Amino acid sequence: MLKNNQFTSDTDGERLERLQLLSANIDTHAVELEIIGDKLLRCQTGGADWNSAVVNAGVEDGESQEATETLDQALLAAHDYYVAAKEHLLSIIYDIGEPDEIIEEYAVKGDAPWNYNGLFIKFNKWLETDTRLKALVPPDPRVVGATVIANLTTHRDTINTLWHDAQEERREKSEAYAAKRELFDKQSSLLTFVLGAAKLVWGNDDPRLRDLGCVPKSEIWTPGQPEPPEPGGATYPDPVENLKAENITTPIIVNKVSWDVLAGANSYSVKKAEVDIGQIAPPMPEEYYAQDYIDNTPVGDNDIMPGKTYYYWVCGVDETGVEGEWAICSCDYV
């Protein structure tokens, strides 16, 4: 149920509820409120426009996560193959002798990296060195066979293709959410205009305001007051406790978010942003990362980039879908 007319703080669900009411009822009141032309058309299509933007952003988010997961699987396979091939190469080098200089040239000293940039560089350095040594007269014997080189090349090319695919999907996801945010802002202005027009004609406490996705003055809920009753449910005002996020680097780099079980919560809602926008409410719900969880199993998030800080919001959700108070934590990915 809509609680206030703070349009810029709407959740996705609140915005859809407002616009569906507005689209369904604007034709009844448009003449009296003198809403015409482009504004009338935007009122009529607002619900459908917003739903389309939310669906599109969700699709792009899903495709981005799928591309990232596919890349992660390929990176894991490439890492494991690189480690096995390196052991084979080192056995050849140490059997022949004089290992230090050639090991430096192959760049196989130390642990194998897990991330794309590190692995791609390692593969390229190995393949370049292999080509140089085989071109010598006579050829340097400190090399692996053609099958290993072919497999190294395949792994390098695979992670390169999938990395670029993941970057493209992330770009499309960002564009979809930017379009959603732009529409949200424009529709916030439209709702403000409609509310203003209705208040001038009907006053600020007329029940017909709810036909337009607005709330009459006497029904507005403000923070610090008891929540208005929700049909068939109740709110859980307490935030989750011991909320934390950790950067896990093995075997695949992810952020993991965990919290204690919250009494009365049937599931949990988790959201993420790349900027700290406050302690009370999360960003546009589902704008960056969101999913419901039945228990407090840690949430794994691999849609992250080096050198950034990520902010996570978590709240309990009752069996009717009512959300409680949000808790927030942050995690640096280095």
Structure commentary:
This protein is an alpha+beta fold and 334 residues long. It has 2 domains: 1-223; 244-333, Immunoglobulin-like, CATH 2.60.40. It is 50% helix and 12% strand. It has helices spanning 12-33, 37-96, 99-106, 116-135, 146-202, and strands spanning 244-248, 254-258, 267-273, 290-293, 299-301, 308-317, 327-333. It has a 4-stranded antiparallel beta sheet, with no helix packed on it. A 3-stranded antiparallel beta sheet has the order 1-2-5, with no helix packed on it. Strand 1 and strand 2 (254-258) form a beta hairpin. Helix 4 runs antiparallel to helix 5 (146-202). The longest helix has 60 residues, at 37-96. The relative contact order is 0.13. The model is unreliable at 229-235 and 284-296 (pLDDT under 50).
Mean pLDDT: 84
Please give the radius of gyration in angstroms: 28 Å
Provide the helix percentage: 40-55%
What gap, in angstroms, lies between the N and C termini? 42 Å
Shape: elongated
Count of discrete domains: 2
Largest sheet, if any? Answer: 4 strands, antiparallel
Number of helices: 5
User: What class, by secondary structure content?
Assistant: alpha+beta
* Uncertain parts: 229-235, 284-296
Number of strands: 7
Q: Looking across the biggest beta sheet, what order are the strands in?
A: 4-3-6-7
Strand % is 5-15%
SSE string, helix = H, strand = E?
HHHHHEEEEEEE
